[in-house]
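User: Helix-turn-helix protein, Alkalibaculum bacchi:
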Amino acid sequence: MSTSDLRKLCELAKEGDEQAIRQIIAKFEPLIYKNSYINGEIDPDCIQELMIKLYNCVKKFEFKTKEEIEKYLDID
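Assistant: Predicted structure for Helix-turn-helix protein:
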C-alpha cells in the first residue's frame, strides 16, 4: 500500500467510512498479532486493545506536507 493510498484511506476513515477502516486494520493486522503475544500465546484482549488504539489513532492522525515536515525539522 502506497503512502498516498494510506492517506486516502485515513481521510475516508476519518469521515466514517467503515470499509476504509477495515482496510487499514487489515494492513496492520500482522503487526497487531505480532505484538499480542503474552506468555507465548496470543491474547485476544490485547488484539482488541491494539485494534481500538489503531482505530483511535487513524481518527486523529493528520498527514503533513513535505514542506511542513521540513519546516518542523528545520531542513533547507
